[in-house]
Amino acid sequence: MAIDENTVREIVRKELESLLISSLTSAVRELQLLIGDVKERQKAYEQWVEEQKREISELREVTAKLVEGFASLSSVTTENTNAITELRKVMEVLVKQTEENTKAITELRKQTEENTKAITELRKQTEENTKAITELRKQTEENTKAITELRKQTEENTKAITELRKQTEENTKAITELRKQTEENTKAITELRKMVEALAKQTEENTKAIAELRRIVAKLVKAVEGLNRRVGGLENTFGLIVEDYIRKDLILWFQSKGTEVKDVRPKTVKVGSEVMEFDAYIEVGNMVYVGEIKATLRKRDMFKLKTKVDILRNYLKDKEVVPFIVYRLKRGKPEELGKMLNITVVKYMKGGYFEER
After folding, report:
1. Paired strand residues for 292
2. What is the mean pLDDT of the chain?
3. Which of 233, 241, 313 is nearest to 276 (CA)?
4. Which of 135, 201, 215, 243 suits a disulfide with 293, CB 3.0-4.6 Å?
5. Which residues pair with 290 in a beta bridge?
6. Domain boundaries, given as residue ranges, for the chain
7. What gap in Å lies between CA 36 and CA 34, rounded to an integer?
8. Other CB atoms closer than 10 Å to residue 312's CB: what's the count?
């Protein structure tokens, strides 16, 4: 039976090298990717859990591949053993080729030892990965417990919020309107901060109002029933600041309309038993301009001004009383009511400009 020794040896060597190198290279790459992924900082909790699940799945696949590689290696080794048995029979006849076959077997043993070392290292790496996964599982369990507690707390908060919602339908509407005005209010507040720096005398009162407002906001969830009163306090504070600032700019507005005005001041007018306060009171010749300055204009403000103007007209019969109202923000459509009541409605715009509506 003539068998080419070099052919057999080459086939055995190639098969072993191909299977071992392919399996080990794939396993090392997969493990390196897993190690890199584990060391990365979690971006978001849910993504982190999903990545761990994916890494465990990949690790299982790598382990399966290693098992398959080892099974293939065992099968190939069995075949090699059979081939070597046959070679030994042939070597009895072909004594001269024994040395070469021995060298081939020695090389295969060295290769096997190297592969064994590599597999040992991979096992150590797998153990380390297993420990890391165990720690991650512990962390996941702790996070799960924390999430469970947070869910319980959320349920309790939800019940409390549900009860509060029943008591705050009107407040919710007001908050909705305030939210719509948030962007404009934010811009206005930015301007007002610059104004506050120039209003040194009002700094102490404004600081107290802002501190009170912060306390109110911090307790908003627990005390929604007091929201109307707190919002009212905020509007009063906001209104005082806006009123003083707009009053100064009204001089320019009158001048733009051709009316020379040097000063705009508030005034209290007493007519009989009625005491009426006007945010702006200007007399120019036979004309008397009376106005209100509102941070947030409502329809009821228009009716109040109309009532006071009617009383003042009866009192100043020889003069022409011209009512106007200036606002920064509004609720509803007070401009239409202003036209019906013959009241000039003016919006104070960003940058100190006035726009008649």
Report:
1. 325
2. 80
3. 313
4. 243
5. 281, 323
6. 5-160, 170-357
7. 5
8. 20
Tell me how far apart the alpha carbons of residues 120 and 210 are, in angstroms, rounded to a whole number: 69
Q: How many residues does the chain have?
A: 357
> Residue 318: helix, strand or coil by DSSP?
coil
Q: Residue 58 and residue 61: Cα distance in Å, rounded?
A: 5
pLDDT of amino acid 152: 87
Q: What are the φ and ψ backbone dihedral angles of 196, each rounded to 5 degrees?
A: -60, -35
Rounded CA separation 283/286 (Å): 7
Q: In the chain, where do the E strands start and end?
A: 265-271, 274-284, 287-297, 320-330, 344-349, 353-356
Three-state SS letters, 109-133: HHHHHHHHHHHHHHHHHHHHHHHHH
Inform me whether the pLDDT recorded for 170 exceeds 60: yes
pTM as predicted: 0.37
Burial of 260 (0-12, 13-18, 19+ CB in 10 A): exposed
Given a cut of 60, is residue 121 above it in pLDDT? yes
Residue 341 exposed, middle or buried by CB count within 10 Å (0-12, 13-18, 19+)? middle
Domain 170-357 fold: Trna Endonuclease; Chain: A, domain 1 (3.40.1350)
Residue 271: partners with Cβ closer than 8 Å, 6 or more residues away: 311, 312, 314, 315
Helical pair 98-167 and 45-93, crossing angle rounded to 10 deg: 170
Instruction: List own/partner pairs for 202-206 with CB under 8 A and 24 or more apart.
Output: 202/240, 202/241, 202/244, 205/237, 205/240, 206/237, 206/241
Nearest CA to 74 out of 33, 23, 125, 35 is that of 23
| pLDDT tens digits, one per residue of 259-282 | 999 889 999 999 999 999 999 999
Which residues are CB-neighbours of 206 under 8 A, at least 6 positions away?
Answer: 196, 199, 237, 241
Buried b (16+ CB within 10 A) or exposed e, 69-86: beebbeebeeebeeebee
With b meaning 16 or more CB within 10 Å and e meaning fewer, what string describes 190-214?
ebbeebbeeeeebeeebeebeeebe
